[in-house]
Design goal:
InterPro entries: TPR-like_helical_dom_sf (IPR011990)
Distance between the termini: 35 Å
Order of helices and strands: EHEEEEEEEHHHHH
Low-confidence stretches: 1-10
Helix content: 25-40%
Protein name: Tetratricopeptide repeat protein
Strand content: 15-25%
Organism: Posidoniimonas polymericola
Structural class: alpha+beta
Length: 218
């Protein structure tokens, strides 16, 4: 898939968090390298490898990543930032902001507005990481770009479908859920989502088809 291959870690030097962000502003993903830093919980002392990839996927090397993100302010202004991610659970605690060569970090709930993950994720998890209720198209566009870059499109398609469903854009949501259903959906609930979308669109035949598929798995 174009844009999906990672540059090998050998092409970069493992470095401290602040150095990784400031020296490689073009890199979207940074993976923690454990065992190289002192015994500390302070992320500023941790070592990271830059990962030049358009889509985040699970790795045997690390399960903790810092990725590019978008901070959508209440007035609609969008600023660049970063957020942390633990895979496969998609746990994210902090958003990170570069200010004059220093790192500021805050819990998500302490940030005004929304913090949206800027890198599509190639595994199942909570779609809210991509959902800005202030500017939904920020996350929608990130996910749509990712659909063309990932070999496992169903996970990104599901994230996209849930956001479009919540925005009541049912025709677009059905297209996204259909991609997931035609592949290997994360669960049979996707059939129920498709049934609901087609019902909203007045497509009773396809609504009945996917409702039947959903019911057969309950």
């Amino acid at each position: 898939m174009p844009g999906y291959d990672c540059r090998s870690a050998a092409e970069f030097t493992t470095m401290r968090f602040i150095d990784a962000l400031t020296q490689h502003p073009e890199i979207p993903i940074f993976g923690r390298v454990e065992g190289l830093e002192p015994d500390t919980d302070d992320i500023r002392d941790w070592e990271f490898d830059p990962i030049d990839a358009a889509v985040l996927r699970e790795s045997e090397i690390s399960d903790f990543f810092v990725v590019k993100a978008k901070h959508v302010l209440p007035g609609g202004t969008i600023q660049d930032c970063y957020l942390d991610l633990c895979l496969p659970e998609r746990i994210s605690d902090y958003a990170y902001f570069l200010r004059d060569g220093e790192i500021e970090f805050r819990y998500h709930h302490e940030c005004d507005g929304d913090v949206v993950c800027g890198v599509p994720i190639d595994c199942f998890g909570v779609y809210e990481l991509f959902y800005s209720r202030i500017a939904p198209d920020v996350g929608i566009n990130i996910l749509r770009n990712g659909l063309n870059l990932s070999p496992h499109r169903q996970y990104i398609a599901e994230d996209l479908g849930y956001i479009l469903r919540d925005e009541r854009r049912f025709a677009e949501a059905a297209e996204a859920f259909q991609i997931a259903a035609d592949g290997q959906p994360s669960s049979y609930f996707i059939y129920g989502e498709l049934a609901g979308c087609y019902d909203e669109l007045g497509d009773t035949e396809r609504a009945a088809k996917y409702q039947s598929l959903f019911a057969s798995h309950e």
